[in-house]
Structures are given as structure tokens and as C-alpha cells.
Specification:
It is built from 24 helices and 29 strands. The strands form 6 sheets. It has a 7-stranded mixed β-sheet with strand order 9-8-11-10-12-13-14, sandwiched between helices. Strands 24, 25, 26, 27, 28 and 29 form a 6-stranded antiparallel β-sheet that branches. Bound molecules: coenzyme A (COA). Coenzyme A (COA) binds near residues 74 and 100.
């Protein structure tokens, strides 16, 4: 058996460190394996015992008579290496290392972990852990963990980076009636990572949805590629802890300041087609819907209720999460009018009012679900004295059977009065929530996934044949030779031109006379800008003069800029003054790039100019997962898009050129990984093209 198959469907299992003592983890694991009903051979390993829990015990792996595909290791840390080595020698496929005391404890632990990794690699084994709780597959069935209880059999795969949280959720899932297909405690992820598991479980017929609790992601780029390919087959839902801005980059550029470390996760999840839950509760609210319901064909929701208040709350929330209340066709309203009392509300939400018997729900669901506009439904119930929640639950179940392509979720609000009905719904596979908000949120999750599935599973970035990589290499060589990492404006402009990015013409002047001559060559009016790698915000140090219309104004401007900068930044090395043709006003945009440690280059687009950080109208994408449609989507997420489309009678801008410029900047940063930051601000957008006015490039 190869790959990760042996983790979940092993032919045989050994427990190394199996113990007779009920208080020990090695005992609990063996007991769980036996009680889970695993039907392959199980080999307890313990040199001191002949038999444990009725099974013959072996002194070592070498003594085991048959082949072992999975070995669960629960011996103290100092014994793990020799045990793992022995496993490798006898041909074990996979290890689950429960033992703690590795990198989580410091340097010594890290050394031990690296040695363990080496052994695993040397023998071509795969490993979950160390420092984990184990794994469960309810379909095999196999519970090779020390969780207190086995989860119910179901279709949710749950993978947790925290073992402790994992057990709590497993226990809670039983109470909530959520069935799991697999559970994996990732531990230190020394070998098998979240990405490996996505790859494996994406094609697992026993799993409908993959859930994660994660604290970090091991290999950002591979994660995005694998998750993107897998999420087109199977929904991936993640709750990622650690969302504070504490890790936000030091702001050496506008783009860097706008992007926090958590933002990169948001962007990566989005481009990978992963849905990110805000809370653990939301993760499981979504999971219960994904595990049992079809994916809706669109955003239009039907709401059926027996009370006004919850109907209003639901309607509000539907709009808030970006769904729509379905607008019925005439025929639906007419049918409802004929069958419901005159006091009922016939338009969405259908209010069958407080004295509704199950028949009214039946009518509302029949005509509502038959309406061609309806893509999903929420059934609300509050326990009035006359209502029969149990019978109403049966009506909902029947309606769901008749419309298997429409997801239906419910919120039967209340306590004891609706408890049985909720259980009936749950066991029939209809998700039920205590209040309307999580019900709507679940439908929103399903709907977003439906939209995600329309996107291609892989992205092919545009290829630009007309770029001059050699020229860029040469510029970077010159900059490095000069002992700098920050390019001067004219150098950055040359880089941009080499990638066919439209740039406002500019030249570098060392003296006032030279500046005046250059201005004549370029054509008046011009803008003067200080050229110094140290100065990121030129305006702040009096380093910019706009609209210089004569040679004299240029000469004076040159002197004034040099004086200002000498005074305010006496230590800065000044290379002269950049003379740039003054471009006409357009929509000011920013296009930038900042590097995220985990996910690599992030491209930013938004409203530019000096208020960038104040307005924060910026959207981000990973450079390596960017094609034209993704760039268009990125642009459409900003308010800048409204201006570009032609705001209040203005002429629309050339969005195609902006898409092209973003694509070329992405290509540049991917071709040259030594580029650490790019800020093109402003980029002027016009009805006929764009022009980059100020370009900052930093290399490493
Ligand atoms: N081969 C086989 N059995 C061995 C062995 C070896 N090389 N070395 C020791 N054993 C046996 C021991 O004799 C003992 O059996 P016994 O009860 O019959 O004496 C058994 O393995 C366990 O060893 P012991 O020394 O009693 O350790 P322990 O059970 O107290 O602790 C761990 C072992 C792995 C549970 C412990 O080191 C540990 O890491 N605990 C934390 C686990 C954890 O929290 N993981 C993360 C969860 S999220």
C-alpha cells in the first residue's frame, strides 16, 4: 500500500507502546482500535507483555508475523527514533506518532524531530504527527486515536492542527448529530501536511466536505494550487486561528502597509476556492449544510415562516450576506392566494401566520419550491400553542425529497417544544439551527461554493512574449553594483518599459541646466522629483515640483528641491532630479506588490494618489494565481472600479489597459523573485490607455 491510503485504510495496524494500564495513552489507543470495529490484524507491541486486551502482544516490530501498513507510536520521545527505524526496516507504510516532546519544546526537540523526519524519508514512509492525537476513519472503520469517544459515521472530514480542540469538537459533534468520515490530528506536520490531506481526501467517495482548524499553512504556494484543483471537486472549509495584525509587515511601501499577514491568508483562501469561516461554530454550521445539501444554482432564497419577526430578521440577513430574496412569478402568488388564508403573506417570505398547521407549510413549500426563481430555502418555525413542530418537520422532509436539487435548511426556534422536531430533521439530513442567522449563513456558504465551482480549477497566467528580461537583469546588476537595493525613479521606469508597461517619459538630471534642457526635450510642462533611494515619500520632504512651464521654472525648481531635501534629510544620498513629462489628469490608481512570507508575491490594485493609506480602497491577489478574469474580478472589488466605468458622466477608462498592466507587473515579479516590493502610484488611467507616473522597485 502506498501514499496516504495506509493512513485511513491500512491492511493491518501495530500499536507500539501498547499498555495494559488503563490510564495510559497506549492502552486507550489499542482499546479504541478494537472497539471501533477495525477488522484487519492488530498487533500490540510491548516487550514486557504477552497479551493486551485479549490480543497477542509482540516484543518488537521485527517479531510481528505479518506485514504492517500503519504503526501508531506511543512510546516516550527518547524511544521514538529507534522504534521508527525499526518500522522502516520491516516495511511499515505509515506512522502516526502520538508522542509529544519535539519541536514544540525547543531546540533539542527540534533536533529530535529532524532526525525522525530523516528516518521517515529514508524508508519512504509517511507520517502523521508527531505530537498528535491520532486518526479516525469511521468508514474503515478505524479509531487509532486517544479521543474519548468515536464520532458518528458521516461525510465530514475534519482535520485539526490542535489535538485538544479536535477532541472537544469530536465529542460535541456527537451531541449535535454531525457525522464524520475522517478525523486527523495534524500535530507538528513534520511530514504529512494539510495540503497532502486535501490531495488525498479530495477524491474520497466517503467524504462530502473537508474541514480544517489551522494555525498556519506549511507551503503556501503548493497549498493554493492543490486546494484550487481540489475545491472544484469538493468544498474545503477552513477556520484559521491567529487573525490579528501583529504580524503585519513593517511599512516600507504603500502596498506593504496595506497588506497584513492575515490578509494574505484571506487572499490565498479566496484564490484557492476555500471558504473561510469566522468562527468554529460557523465552520460546523456550514459543514452540516455541505454534508447533506445540494449546491444551489443561484442566490435566490425562499423563506417560509409562521411569524413576522423571524421572517424580517431572515430577510435582512439574506440581503446582508449577499443573497437575494426570490421574487415569485405571478402564478406562484396566485396559487398561494387560492390556498392560504387572506391574512397570510404571499410574497417572499411566505408567512403562513401563527395559527398555521402543517398543511399550510406544505402548501407554501410546494408552490414556493416549484417557482423557477427559487434556488434555496429556509423554513422557520416558532412554537405557538397550535403548531405541530413534529408534523411540520415531516412536511419539510417530504418537500426536500420532492426537490432534491434545492438545498433546504431550517430554524425551528425554541427549546423543549421543538427538540424532537429538530432531531427528526437532523436525522433526515435537513440541517437545523437554533436561530435564522446561522441558517442563512449556511446557505450563503453553499451559494458561494456554487459560484466558486464555476471557476477553472487551474489558472494559467498570461504569457507576454514582448518583454525584455535581459534589460531588467542588466538594470538590477547596475543597481547592485552601485551598492543599492532601491531603484531610482528613472531606473524603475526602464524596468517597466522593458515589460511594456506604459510609463510617463522621464530623464535624470544632475544639474539645473541639464534639467531645463531635458524639460525642453520632453516638452513642457514637466514635473521635478528628487532622485534618492532613501526617500520613499518625496512630497513629504519638499522633493516634488509640479507643472514647471519654463526652463527658468525648471532651474529654480531643481535648486529648491535640492535645498529642501538637504535641509530635511541631510544624510540622504541624492542622485539628482528626475524630470518627467507632466501627464494630464486621469483616474489615479495604485498597482503594487508586496511579498508575504507564506504565500509569496501579492499584487495590489486600488485607488491611488497620496490618500492610498487613508482610503484603503485596495484589493489583493496572489501573483501566481492571476489570469485575466481574476484581474477583472480584482478590479471590480474596488470603489475605483466605479470611477473607471465613468462616474457621473465622465468618460469610462480603458480597463483593458489596466488589466494588461497588472498582468505585466505580475509577470515581472514572478520572473524576478529578487523584487521584494513594487509601488506604482499613481498610475493614471485614461479613456485610451494608462501611464505609470511614479514607480518604486526594491530588490533584495
Ligand atoms: N517498544 C515498545 N514498547 C515500549 C517501548 C518500545 N521501544 N518503550 C516503552 N514501551 C512501553 C512501555 O513499557 C510502556 O508500557 P507499560 O505500560 O506496559 O509499561 C508503554 O510503552 C508506554 O511507555 P511509558 O514509558 O509508560 O510512557 P507513557 O505511556 O507514560 O507516555 C507517551 C508515552 C507517548 C504517551 C508520552 O511520552 C507523551 O508523549 N504524552 C503526550 C502525548 C500528547 O499529548 N500528544 C499530543 C496530543 S494532541
Amino acid at each position: 500500500m502506498s501514499g496516504l491510503g495506509a493512513v485511513f485504510k491500512p491492511h493491518s495496524v501495530a500499536v507500539i507502546g501498547a499498555s495494559k494500564s488503563p490510564g495510559k495513552i497506549g492502552h486507550a489507543i489499542l482499546k479504541n482500535i478494537i472497539e471501533s470495529g477495525y477488522n484487519g490484524p492488530v498487533y500490540p507491541i510491548n516487550p514486557k507483555e504477552d497479551e493486551i486486551l485479549g490480543l497477542r502482544c509482540y516484543p518488537s516490530m521485527r517479531a510481528v508475523p505479518g506485514e504492517v501498513s500503519l504503526a501508531v507510536i506511543s512510546v516516550p520521545p527518547q524511544a521514538v527514533l529507534s522504534v521508527a527505524e525499526e518500522c522502516g526496516q520491516v516495511g511499515v507504510n505509515c506512522l502516526v506518532v502520538i508522542t509529544a516532546g519535539f519541536k514544540e519544546t525547543g531546540k533539542e526537540g527540534l533536533d529530535l524531530e529532524l532526525k525522525l523526519k530523516e528516518i521517515v524519508k529514508k524508508y519512504g514512509m509517511r507520517m502523521i504527527g508527531p505530537n498528535c492525537l491520532g486518526i479516525i476513519d469511521t468508514h474503515t472503520p478505524l479509531n487509532a486515536s486517544f479521543a474519548k469517544r468515536s464520532p458518528l459515521k458521516g461525510r465530514i472530514a475534519f482535520i485539526s492542527q490542535s489535538g485538544a480542540l479536535g477532541v472537544a469538537i469530536l465529542d460535541w459533534s456527537i451531541q449535535r448529530g454531525l457525522g464524520m468520515s475522517k478525523f486527523v490530528s495534524l500535530g507538528n506536520k513534520t511530514d504529512i501536511s494539510e495540503t497532502d490531506l486535501i490531495e488525498e481526501i479530495a477524491s474520497d467517495d466517503e467524504t462530502s466536505v473537508i474541514l480544517f482548524y489551522l494555525e498556519d499553512i506549511s507551503d503556501g504556494r503548493r497549498f493554493v494550487e492543490v486546494a484550487r484543483a481540489s475545491s472544484s471537486k469538493k468544498p474545503i472549509l477552513i477556520f484559521k486561528a491567529g487573525t490579528t495584525q501583529a504580524g503585519a509587515q513593517a511599512a516600507s511601501s504603500h502596498t506593504g502597509a496595506l497588506a497584513g499577514s492575515d490578509l494574505a491568508y484571506d487572499v490565498a483562501f479566496k484564490q484557492a476556492g476555500v471558504l473561510r469561516a469566522k468562527t468554529i461554530e460557523e465552520l460546523f454550521d456550514w459543514a452540516s449544510a455541505f454534508a447533506s445539501q445540494p449546491i444551489p444554482s443561484g442566490k435566490n432564497v425562499l423563506v417560509v415562516t409562521n411569524s413576522g419577526g423571524p421572517g424580517i430578521i431572515t430577510t435582512d440577513y439574506v440581503e446582508n450576506v449577499g443573497l437575494n430574496m426570490a421574487r415569485f412569478q405571478k402564478e406562484t402568488v396566485e396559487n398561494l392566494r387560492k390556498s392560504l388564508p387572506p391574512t397570510a403573506n404571499l410574497y417572499n417570505p411566505i408567512d403562513v401566520i401563527g395559527d398555521a398547521l402543517p398543511e399550510r407549510y406544505e402548501i407554501a413549500l410546494k408552490y414556493g419550491l416549484e417557482d423557477p426563481a427559487v434556488c434555496s430555502a429556509i423554513v422557520l418555525l416558532t412554537p405557538t400553542a397550535v403548531i405541530d413542530p413534529d408534523q411540520t418537520a415531516s412536511v419539510v422532509i417530504e418537500a426536500a425529497k420532492a426537490h432534491r436539487d434545492i438545498p433546504i435548511v431550517t430554524s425551528f426556534m425554541g427549546g423543549e417544544a421543538v427538540e424532537q422536531a429538530r432531531k427528526t430533521l437532523s436525522s433526515a439530513g435537513i440541517p437545523t439551527y437554533p436561530f435564522p442567522e446561522p441558517a442563512v449563513s449556511a446557505l450563503a456558504g453553499l451559494t458561494r461554493y456554487g459560484q466558486r465551482r464555476l471557476k477553472p480549477s487551474t489558472i494559467s497566467s498570461p504569457v507576454y512574449e514582448d518583454v525584455d528580461r535581459e534589460a531588467v537583469k542588466e538594470i538590477f546588476r547596475e543597481v547592485k553594483e552601485d551598492g543599492r537595493l532601491v531603484l531610482l525613479g528613472p531606473e524603475a521606469a526602464r524596468v517597466a518599459r522593458s515589460y511594456n508597461i506604459p510609463v510617463a517619459p522621464s530623464l535624470l538630471a544632475k544639474r539645473p541646466d541639464e534639467a531645463a534642457y531635458m524639460a525642453e526635450v520632453l516638452g513642457f510642462p514637466v514635473v521635478l522629483k528628487i532622485a534618492s533611494p532613501k526617500i520613499m515619500h518625496k512630497t513629504d520632504v519638499g522633493g516634488v515640483k509640479v507643472n514647471c512651464k519654463t526652463p527658468r521654472e525648471v532651474r529654480d525648481g531643481f535648486v529648491e528641491i535640492m535645498d529642501n531635501v538637504h535641509r530635511l534629510m541631510p544624510d540622504a544620498t541624492l542622485y539628482g532630479v528626475e524630470v518627467q513629462k507632466m501627464m494630464k489628469k486621469g483616474v489615479e490608481l495604485i498597482i503594487g506588490m508586496t511579498k508575504d512570507m507564506q504565500f509569496g508575491p501579492l499584487i495590489a490594485f486600488g485607488l491611488g494618489g497620496i490618500y492610498v493609506n487613508l482610503l484603503k480602497d485596495v484589493s489583493f491577489r496572489l501573483a501566481y494565481a492571476l489570469d485575466e478574469s481574476e484581474i477583472e474580478e480584482m478590479i471590480s472589488e474596488t470603489k475605483a472600479h466605479m470611477l473607471l466605468k465613468g462616474y457621473r458622466g465622465e468618460k469610462p477608462c480603458d480597463i483593458k489597459s489596466i488589466v494588461d498592466t497588472i498582468g505585466r507587473i505580475s509577470a515581472l515579479v514572478l520572473d524576478f523573485p529578487e523584487i521584494t516590493d513594487v509601488d506604482v502610484n499613481p498610475v493614471m488611467a485614461y479613456p485610451d490607455g494608462v501611464a505609470a507616473l511614479d514607480i518604486k522597485i526594491t530588490i533584495s
